[in-house]
Amino acid sequence: MKTRQGFVSNSSSSSYILSTPSGLNEVEVTLKVNLDTSFWSIRFANLHDWTKHIEKEYGYREFRDIEAICENDEWTKEIYDKGKKALENGQDVVWLCPASDSDNPVDRLFYEDPTALIEAIERLGCVVLINGH
User: Fold this and answer.
1) Which domain, by its residues, includes 57?
2) Which of 16, 37, 43, 114 sits at a 20 to 30 Å CA gap from 98?
3) Does the residue 101 lie in any domain?
4) Which residues partner with 40 through β-bridges?
5) 115 vs 39: CA distance, rounded Å
6) Whole-number Å distance between alpha carbons of 123 and 45
7) pTM of this prediction?
8) C-alpha angle with apex 65: 61 to 67, nearest 5 degrees?
9) Which three-class secondary structure string do you get for the chain?
């Protein structure tokens, strides 16, 4: 009879055997998340690219240039102005879109509850311009 030495797990699950202080049932986990690759995201480093993106995504019919779009849509104007201010202050604007149907578990996690991601971003001194959740 063969005896397996070491840790055993099958391919469809992970197993852990722990020794914990009595009553410990919660652990804080820290994740390092790459904002450019962990989600569907677009990074803007200049005002020209930011403006063109807003015009492309929010322009319609006769409202195709940024001035007309902002005059006719307060929500888009708010987004545009906040991004413009950040870019003029030398910051990047990163548009993150976590998705519930992603194959990426980090993506799904932050779609369901973005609180931890937003708090981590804010602790680094970053500003959440729009929380669309």
Assistant:
1) 40-123
2) 16
3) yes
4) 97
5) 16
6) 21
7) 0.69
8) 115
9) CCCCCCCCCCCCCCCCCCCCCCCCCCCCCCCCCCCCCCCEEEEECCHHHHHHHHHHHHCECCECCHHHHHHHCHHHHHHHHHHHHHHHCCCCEEEEECCCCCCCHHHHHHHHCCHHHHHHHHHCCCCCCCCCC
Q: Give the model confidence (pLDDT) of 67-84 as tens digits.
A: 999 999 999 999 999 999
Domain count, the chain: 1
Asked whether residue 113 is assigned to any structural domain, the reply reads: yes
pLDDT over 70 (residue 87): yes
Q: Do the domain assignments include residue 117? A: yes
Q: Report residue 4's pLDDT band, with 50, 70 and 90 as the boundaries.
A: low
Cβ–Cβ under 8 Å, residues 128 and 118 = yes
Largest distance between two CA atoms of the chain:
79
